[in-house]
Structure formats: structure tokens, C-alpha cells
């Protein structure tokens, strides 16, 4: 667990193993507490509450940095040059999806299905309207180092533009669960 989760996640062993070496091993490997079965309900609740009081209130931020744009998925907040940007829920999800997939061509039907839960045979301008709003709100234009381009009758592609107007495509894979 400690190898997969942050250190701030509390771990309590509740087990029938009552040998001293089992208890010592679990505590030395990172367990925060150890309760031998059968666990007494009120005692277990008290141990959980005590442990919760010692855990920091704020988990690691998980903030993603895209140049002048920062995404805080826990707060569902995006800042541009340090200033919060007011977005609707769908605008937030679309912005996250575009930024996570910088350099990738995304079809309208894919965006409709993944973010709106609608099938690709629906004739709607919803995606186009939201894209237009995001261009303005997040300043996704060449003068600010971005290019959010439409691909005729297909979809959109967000690219990061360097100082010489060269498109740069990051090599990292996107984390589709970032903002969901």
C-alpha cells in the first residue's frame, strides 16, 4: 500500500493474526495501527477517528501545470497566469481533456461521447460553442503560446506554440482520470 498510495493515507490492519512478530512486521512496514479480531466496534471507531485527527487535512495537490495554465482537479479550478478562471462544469472538463491531450486530434463525436455522454450521431453545436468560450476564457491563441485549431468536419486539436511559432507536442501520455 505504501508503494502505491501517498504516505498520508492511513492504514489500519484488522486481522486475526495476533503473534507479536506479525504486529511488529506490519507496523514496521508502514501500518499506522493494528487491531486483532474480533475487533470491538467502539474501540475500532475510536482508533479510526484518532488516526483521522493525525492525518493532514489536505491531500497532495495533484495540480497539473500547463505553462501559464494550472489545473487543480481536487478543487475543480483552473487558473490562468495565477488568476482563477470562471468555468462551467462542462467547460472545466473540456479544458482538462484538451490540455491532457495536447497535440492530439480529438473528434467532436469523441468529445460529445466522453464529456457529454451523447452518441456521435447527435447533430449539435455544443462542442463548438464550448470550444469558442474556452478559447476566450483561457486565452488559447498564438499570442499566448497556444493554438486551438479546428479540423474541418472532424474536431479540434490543442497545441503548445513555442516562441518561434513551432508546434510542440508533449511526449507524455494523458491521464484521462485527471479531472473526473
Short summary:
This protein has 180 residues and is of the alpha+beta class. Helix content is 31%, strand content 22%.
Low-confidence stretches: 168-177
Indicate the percent of residues in helices: 25-40%
Largest sheet, spatial ordering of strands: 3-4-5-6
On the 0 to 100 scale, the average pLDDT is: 82
**Radius of gyration of CA atoms, rounded to a whole number:** 23 Å
Characterize the overall form.
Answer: elongated
Provide the β-strand percentage band: 15-25%
The computed structural class is alpha+beta
| Beta-strand segment tally | 10
H and E string = EHEHEEEEHEHHEEE
Number of helices: 5
| N→C terminal distance | 23 Å
- What characterizes the major β-sheet? 4 strands, antiparallel
List keywords for this structure.
alpha+beta
Amino acid at each position: 500500500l505504501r508503494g502505491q498510495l501517498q504516505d498520508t493515507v492511513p492504514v489500519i490492519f484488522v486481522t486475526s493474526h495476533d503473534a507479536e512478530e506479525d504486529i511488529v512486521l506490519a507496523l514496521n512496514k508502514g501500518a499506522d495501527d493494528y487491531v486483532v479480531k474480533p475487533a470491538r466496534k467502539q474501540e475500532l471507531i475510536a482508533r479510526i477517528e484518532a488516526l483521522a485527527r493525525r492525518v493532514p487535512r489536505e491531500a497532495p495537490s495533484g495540480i497539473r501545470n500547463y505553462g501559464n495554465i494550472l489545473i487543480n482537479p481536487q478543487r475543480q479550478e483552473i487558473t490562468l497566469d495565477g488568476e482563477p478562471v470562471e468555468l462551467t462544469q462542462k467547460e472545466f472538463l473540456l479544458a482538462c481533456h484538451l490540455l491532457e491531450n495536447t497535440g492530439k486530434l480529438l473528434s467532436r463525436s469523441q468529445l460529445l461521447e466522453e464529456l457529454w455522454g451523447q452518441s456521435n450521431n447527435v447533430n449539435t453545436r455544443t462542442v463548438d460553442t464550448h470550444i469558442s468560450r474556452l478559447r476566450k476564457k483561457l486565452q488559447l491563441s498564438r499570442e499566448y503560446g497556444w493554438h486551438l485549431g479546428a479540423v474541418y468536419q472532424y474536431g479540434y486539436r490543442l497545441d503548445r506554440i513555442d516562441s518561434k511559432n513551432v508546434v510542440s507536442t508533449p511526449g507524455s501520455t494523458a491521464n484521462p482520470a485527471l479531472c473526473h
